[in-house]
Amino acid sequence: xxxxxxxxxxxxxxxxxxxxxxxxxxxxxxxxxxxxxxxxxxxxxxxxxxxxxxxxxxxxxxxxxxxxxxxxxxxxxxxxxxxxxxxxxxxxxxxxxxxxxxxxxxxxxxxxxxxxxxxxxxxxxxxxxxxxxxxxxxxxxxxxxxxxxxxxxxxxxxxxxxxxxxxxxxxxxxxxxxxxxxxxxxxxxxxxxxxxxxx
Length: 199
Known about the structure:
The chain has helices spanning 31-44, 79-87, 108-124, 147-156, 181-191, and strands at 3-6, 10-16, 19-27, 50-56, 66-69, 94-101, 129-132, 135-142, 160-166, 170-177, 197-198. By secondary structure, it is of the alpha+beta class. The longest helix is centred in the middle third of the chain and has 17 residues, at 108-124.
C-alpha cells in the first residue's frame, strides 16, 4: 500500500528552562539507514548529554522495524513519546533524533515527556512529505512486431522498462504502481489484441 515518507530533512530547536532540544528528522528506508543517521547526529553533537531517537523504518503500520531509545534520560520519558508522535502521523521510512543540552534546571519525568513530545510535534509541523507508491513488476512476452507499440505505450504512461531480452519472442520487465497493475494489464491486452503474455 502507498504511504507518506519524508521529502527532505528537518532541523528544529525548542528551548525550555534553558535546556535545548534540537530535533533532526530524515527519511530512513531501512533499519541500517536509521542507525547510520543516529550515529551521524551523535558525532555532530559529541558534547550533548543525550541523543534520544525513534524510527519507523518501513511501512507506518505494517513494519517490524520500529524502535526508540531514551539514551540516558529516565526510562520512558524521551524515546517512547517521540515514537508515539511518529506513529500518530502515519508516515513511514522516518527517523527522528532529539539532541538535548541540559540547561541546569531539572524538568522532572513529566516535564521531560512533555518537552520531548512538544519538540517532536513542533518539528513534525515543518516536515514535508511525499507519497511512496508500492511498485509491482510485470513480465511481458510478445512478438517483435509489437515492440514499437509496447515501448510507445510505456513512454506515454511513464512506465519504467526495467529490462528487455530478445529470444524467440521479446521478454520485457516493467514496473508499475501496484494499484494500477490490473488496469495496465488490461490496456496491454487490448493494445496487442490479446497477443501478449503477462506473467
